Amino acid sequence: MSYYKVDNLEQYFKHYNKSVREPRKFWGKIAEENFTWYQQWDKVVDFNMAEGDIKWFTEAKLNITKNAIDRHLNKRGDKTAIIFEPNNPEEEALHITYNDLHQRVCKMANVLRDQGIAKGDRVCIYLPMIPELAVALLACARIGAIHSVIFAGFSADAVSNRITDSGCKMVITADGGFRGSKTIALKEIIDEALEKCDSVEKILVVKRTNTQVNMMEGRDQWIQPLLDEASDNSIAEIMDAEDPLFILYTSGSTGKPKGMVHTTAGYMVQSAYTFKNVFAYEETDVFWCTADIGWITGHSYIVYGPLLNGATTVIFEGVPSYPDFSRFWQIIEKHKITQFYTAPTAIRALAKENLEYINKYALKSLKVIGSVGEPINEEAWHWYNDHVGAKKCPVVDTWWQTETGGIMISPLAFVTPTKPTYATLPLPGIQPVLMDEKRNEIEGNQVVGSLCIKFPWPGIARTIWGDHKRYIDTYFSAFPGKFFTGDGALRDEVGYYRITGRVDDVVIVSGHNLGTAPIEDAINEHPAVAESAIVGFPHDVKGKALYGYVILKETGEIRNKENLFKEINQHISDHVGPIAKLDKIQFVDGLPKTRSGKIMRRILRKIAEGDFSNFGDTSTLLNPEIIEHIKEGSK
Ligand code: PRX
Predict the structure, then answer these.
(1) What pLDDT, on the 0 to 100 scale, is given for residue 52?
(2) Quick check: CB of 513 below 6 Å from ligand 1?
(3) 383 C-alpha vs ligand 1 centroid, how far in Å?
(4) 301 Cα to the center of ligand 1, angstroms
(5) Local confidence band at 254 (pLDDT 50, 70, 90 cut-offs)
């Protein structure tokens, strides 16, 4: 019996039970039957959750690009692996076959090797959504270099922190990137970022926008001439199952971003298995995930998951609103997309527009539509189901995280009955539990609690780059022996999960995971600011938007508050990125703090939401009188 594909609900329960009772047999069989290995493992899993020590497929040897590319060449060499849809709809789309992809990846792998990159070196990739981005990831994986993709919307400061943290030796970037009507000068941002990093020796630059750039002699090179010269065959490095494949940064509730480290074999198995099952992937499908490859969704469901299954995957360079709000629908019709995977924030933004935008296009190729990144509200779910899926495509509301590597809780298309706003059931191999405040597991149904996972799964991130202690503290100490997700959830009467949102200081804005601390740091850098606190509040398109409470320094100087708001947002743009800008600001005299100096965000959150009803227990506050002042000022 094969466990790779679940065909119906009864089989789901069979596979699920098997995966819980005998996880080693379950994952071992999947790994054995569906992938190419140089050497088999001796243990399927070896772990100690309390120590954050997790290994899958120990001692196995493989290369993920052999699995994502080479092994398809015989059967699918001429099949399209990647469809590139440019920002400008007038520019022709590109169809890259598996043969082409193999050639491109080998060439880039050879260029990287020629430039001195070897196994274990970190390579920062800061590229727009163009084919070279996927090729760069795979080229790193081919030679065993660890890719660290930084979303091309991050500012120079944010880029610089991430490059320094992981000690990248090389940066691959572009002269610029097109995004709707804008052009972003990426190389210029890298130049600025590198003023503060000394680990980077080489920069390779892709030409995309013909933006004027400065090339530093000895450090910077255009990549195309190097690719033209390079051989199109490259031997794949033999990797250990637990060798790091990539680092991807995600926000933490405190301090600097966390460089989540994903390793080779487990991530491969998880991304491939989840792709196949959640989206009911079949050979002739054309899969489109609208995320940016700069986020985990793009890593797992634009690049690795689809290619590992020999699928056709779409890379879209642009934005849903350019040249107008019909762009997504036009692309679905044009490329006959079968699975469409996007974020609630995009759905809400498009649902606000005239239905004519969508009605003009034939979306009948669609079979499955998916949602990811934040809770999807009921209205958006129905709009998506009615107007995009024509009530015939299962809506897969997929819950997961950068840390989990792949989808964890989600309907499996055509298997799990869906329910609006519910991520429904855990995938086989995933053992979620809800925990109460006393750290006890909550049994039964119709309950709410903190969402933890009690058994390791192959795709779990293994550590935080350079800080294993922080990894243990963040994920394994709140509920000892269990992985704490940071999310709250409820389990309904039939055992379906609904994710209710973050229970820590992370705010999800337009599907972007933002930690409050770095934004507060950016605000506090403004010379007029003494202190600040950020919380999220409901927003009809973004899901959550940011509300900043700011205390100004007492300089006696009278400042124009509107200008100050603009300047503060500029500071945030410069230090974190434009996605982290505040929607609202309130200048206050103080912040509610506990005796130990911790800001009581719960109160600030309620005020930001305009809910003054019940602030709960405020007895530990040092300055309870401040609440009245903040409340009044918010009106
Ligand atoms: O709060 C959850 C929310 O996004 C967080 C993870 O963010 P990130 O690591 O950036 O990864 C996003 C893409 C996988 C989670 O802790 N989240 C993600 N998917 C859902 C969700 N919340 C509700 N429903 C979802 N389907």
Answers:
(1) 96
(2) yes
(3) 21
(4) 14
(5) low
Q: Please say whether the beta carbons of 278 and 272 come within 8 A.
A: no
The ligand 1 atom nearest the CA atom of 291: 13
CA pair distance 464, 455, nearest whole angstrom: 19
Q: What residues contact residue 374 under an 8 Å CB cut-off, 6+ apart? A: 343, 344, 345, 508, 511, 543, 544
H or E element at residue 549: strand 543-552
Ligand 1 centre distance from Cα of residue 398 (Å):
8
Whether 277 lines ligand 1, by a CB cut-off of 6 Å, is no
What is the helix (H) or strand (E) element at residue 530, kind and residue range? Answer: strand 529-539
Structure tokens at 589: 């005299």
- DSSP per-residue string spanning 570-635: HHHHHHT-GGG--SEEEE-S---BBTTS-B-HHHHHHHHTT--S-----TTBS-TTHHHHHHHHH-
Give dist(CA 102, CA 70) in Å, integer: 7
Per-residue tokens: 265: 């074999």
Residue, of 623 and 201, whose pLDDT is higher: 201
- Exposure on the CB side of residue 318, measured as CA atoms within 13 A: 23
CA angle 297, 466, 456 (to 5 degrees): 55
**In the predicted model, is pLDDT for residue 302 greater than 80?**
yes
The model's pLDDT over 603-622, given as tens digits with 9 standing for 90+, comes to 999 999 999 888 877 877 88
| pLDDT greater than 80 at residue 11 | yes
Q: Which atom of ligand 1 is nearest to 398's Cα? A: 26
Q: Name the CA dihedral angle for 626, 631, 634, 635, rounded to a multiple of 10 degrees.
A: -150
* Angstrom distance (rounded) from CA 434 to CA 578: 35
Q: Does the bond joining 323 to the residue before it have cis omega, within 30 degrees of 0?
A: yes
Structure tokens at 620: 């530990």
Reduce the DSSP state of residue 47 to 3 states and report it: strand
Ligand 1 atom closest to 295 (CA): 10
Q: Stretch 286-312: mean pLDDT, rounded?
A: 98
HSE-CB for 490 with a 13 A CA cutoff: 8
Q: How far is the CA of 401 from the centre of ligand 1 (A)?
A: 5
Contact 382, 395 (CB under 8 A): no
Residue bearing the CA closest to ligand 1, atom 7: 401
pLDDT over 70 (residue 417): yes
Q: Is the CB of 341 under 6 A from ligand 1?
A: no
Average pLDDT, the chain: 95
The three-state secondary structure class of 196 is coil
Ligand 1 lined by 475 (C-beta under 6 Å): no
Is residue 373 lining ligand 1, measured as CB closer than 6 Å? Answer: yes
Global pTM value: 0.92
Tell me the two tokens of residue 537: 């509040």
Residue nearest to atom 8 of ligand 1 (CA): 401
Answer yes or no: is the C-beta of 591 below 6 A from any ligand 1 atom.
no
